[in-house]
Design brief:
Blueprint: E1 2-10, E2 13-18, E3 24-29, H1 35-47, E4 61-69, H2 72-84, E5 93-101, E6 106-110, E7 113-114, H3 117-123, E8 128-131, H4 143-153, H5 156-203, H6 209-221, H7 223-238, H8 244-262, H9 267-293, H10 298-318, H11 322-388, E9 395-401, E10 404-411, E11 414-416, E12 425-431, E13 439-440, H12 447-460, E14 469-473, H13 481-494, E15 499-503, H14 507-510, E16 515-524, E17 527-534, H15 537-549, H16 555-574
Parallel strand pairs: 3-15, 3-16, 8-14, 14-15
Antiparallel strand pairs: 1-2, 1-4, 4-5, 5-6, 6-7, 9-12, 10-11, 12-13, 16-17
């Protein structure tokens, strides 16, 4: 509830501190005294903005401060919202302060800490609902209509579960979109990847092959030189006039063997020389064999050059050597395999999305049926409330619409668009006069009509609304007498579940006030100043008398005022403690 409002240099208000109480607070006063200005101050505080034209003339700064006591429901929601923005709610008290200078910046604080207007705007629905010439009219925002209907129909649990699954569907669709994007890119690359893999595989590369070819090419390029060197080596080893080194070694071996036969001391030496002879003999055979192999076919060198050219070409494309080329081939094959996996993932995600859409479609159908059942009962309840408010000619309807969407949910043979709340687009429609078509609630021009229709709605579903403070600014425009008394009863009953503030000019409404405030204005040194006073019992009676008869009051008007108070008192004493509903919430 609003515990205290401090207003300084706002309009014709110089400095007031207003403390509304629990229940029904009624503000009355003469025209132009500033009754609605108090409500304007609350609106400006909640919007976080004070226009330069609203700052009191001949002053440079206006200050607004509101102290709120939070009920448990509002406290939980506000604490969670503040936590998202790194702020804590220490207790059940919320202090909002706004300071604004002419042509300067505004300073907005919550419990002493700076707060942004965007965060404040998210807090407002949990603090105050203002009905009048106000941007805070929740019922003029059709997004609240479905919230109210779901509360009335007791379908918030089903709606929450639907929202959870809808978020899951959104996540799956996002995964599918990403997977399809990756797959499209992969498919575009598939032909190129296959070409690369085929090119490498066709080369049939082997590790160490390049080094072997380079070595062989080097040999073939030096054939003539090698042949000369081989000839020279064979000449020394086994040719020449004396048979070469092999013949000389053979002679030496024979001589040493004979020595060993005489003196065994050289037997080992003889064996070693003989072994050396055989080694040299084998070496000569190898050199001779090598010499025979030096007779290369010229086409073989060309083949080697072509093979090396192919390897170098692949190295320029895929890696600096054959091991890197083969590693690139393995990677390319893996990517080609993954393209098949992408298609499998797409099929899997598509199947999961189809199944979840079917499930959500069934849930949306069930949710819509429950809402439509409750809507009929809400229409009857509101119609009864409107009749009580002498607005029996007004017709109230809950309008349901859906939108076709090829990407939506299958619902009862249709494919419908959806949001986290289902497939229903719900809006309150009214016709204010016989013969007029039903129109959206926010298209009604008359503030008084809007306020009273709002009161009828709030009365019909008052148990469902946990907004702690409700303000009705001149809800009684165009109302008088008997209708005013019924309006006063509705306001008082509604105030049993909320702190309710009403700016009124009707004594029939003011008679039901739990707290009556009188706004007046005075002139001092050529300046007008507005004041607000909490009336005691005598002041309450006197103000009712003035409201009934004007300034010419007398015993008759006082007697009429007493009758109003007595009638209101009897109604309060005999009325149930909790707000009544004309029908069960949803029959469940």
């Amino acid at each position: 509830m609003l515990v205290e409002l401090r207003v300084k240099n706002f309009g014709i208000i110089e400095d007031i501190t207003w403390s509304p109480g629990e229940g029904l607070n009624v503000i009355t006063g003469e025209t132009g005294a500033g009754k609605s200005l108090v409500i304007d101050a609350v609106e400006s505080l909640l919007s976080g903005r004070i226009g330069d034209e609203q700052i009191r003339h001949q002053t440079n700064e206006a200050t607004l401060e509101g102290i709120f006591y939070l009920n448990p429901a509002s406290r939980l929601k506000i604490a969670a919202l503040l936590a998202e923005n790194g702020q804590e709610l220490e207790d059940d008290t919320l202090i909002i302060r706004l300071e604004s200078k002419l042509a300067g910046r505004s300073v907005l604080r919550l419990n002493g800490s700076a707060i942004s207007r965007s965060v404040l705007s998210r807090l407002c629905p949990y603090l105050i609902d203002i009905h009048g010439q106000s941007e805070h009219l929740s019922l003029l925002n059709k997004s609240f209509h479905l919230d109210m209907l779901d509360g009335y129909a007791h379908t918030t649990t089903q709606r929450t579960e639907f929202a959870r699954l809808a978020n899951e569907l959104t996540s799956l669709q996002r995964q599918l979109s990403e997977q399809e994007k990756i797959n499209r890119e992969a498919v575009r690359q598939q032909e190129f990847l296959r070409f690369q893999a085929d090119e490498i595989e066709a080369a049939n590369l082997a590790e160490g092959e390049e080094e072997s070819l380079l070595s062989k090419r080097q040999v073939m390029a030096s054939t003539e030189k090698l042949k000369t060197l081989v000839h020279q080596s064979l000449e020394h080893l086994c040719s020449g006039q004396n048979g070469g080194a092999l013949a000389d070694l053979n002679q030496a071996m024979q001589s040493i063997r004979k020595i060993a036969e005489i003196d065994p001391a050289l037997k080992n030496t003889a064996d070693e020389v003989e072994n050396t002879y055989f080694i040299l003999e084998e070496s000569i055979r190898l050199v001779q064999s090598y010499n025979r192999g030096l007779d290369f076919n010229p086409s073989e060198l060309e083949d080697i050059e072509n093979r090396l050219a192919l390897i170098h070409s692949l190295e320029r494309k895929y890696g600096r050597d054959i091991p890197q080329i083969l590693a690139f081939l393995a990677k390319t094959k893996t990517e080609l395999d993954n393209i098949g996996h992408f298609a499998q993932n797409i099929d899997r995600l598509g199947g999961a999305i189809t199944d979840l859409k079917s499930r959500l479609g069934d849930m949306a159908s069930s949710l819509s049926a429950l809402r439509k059942e409750a809507a009929q009962k809400l229409e009857k309840a509101v119609q009864t409330e409107l009749s009580d408010l002498n607005m029996g000619q007004v017709i109230f309807k809950v309008n349901f619409q859906t939108q076709a969407d090829e990407n939506g949910l299958p619902v009862d043979g249709q494919i419908l668009g959806f949001s986290s709340s289902g497939t229903d687009l719900v809006e309150f429609f009214v016709s204010t006069n016989p013969g007029e078509p039903l129109r959206p609630l926010n298209k009604i021009a008359s503030t008084g009509e809007i306020s009273r229709i709002t009161l009828a709605l709030k009365s019909a579903a008052s148990r469902l609304d946990d907004i702690p403070v409700m303000i009705f600014d001149e809800i009684d425009i165009g109302v008088g007498g008997r209708s005013g008394d019924m309006l006063g009863r509705k306001l008082w009953k509604l105030s049993q579940g909320h702190q309710l503030i009403s700016v009124s000019h009707l004594p029939q409404i003011a008679a039901y006030a739990d707290h009556h405030f009188y706004v007046s204005k005075t002139e001092f040194n050529g300046r007008i100043n507005s004041h607000i006073e909490h009336l005691n019992t005598e002041g309450h009676l006197a103000e009712l008398s003035v409201m009934l008869s004007g300034n010419q009051t007398g015993e008759k008007s006082l007697e009429n005022a007493r009758e109003l108070l007595k009638k209101a008192s009897i109604f309060k004493e005999t009325s149930p403690e909790q707000p009544e509903l004309n029908i069960p919430l949803s029959g469940r």
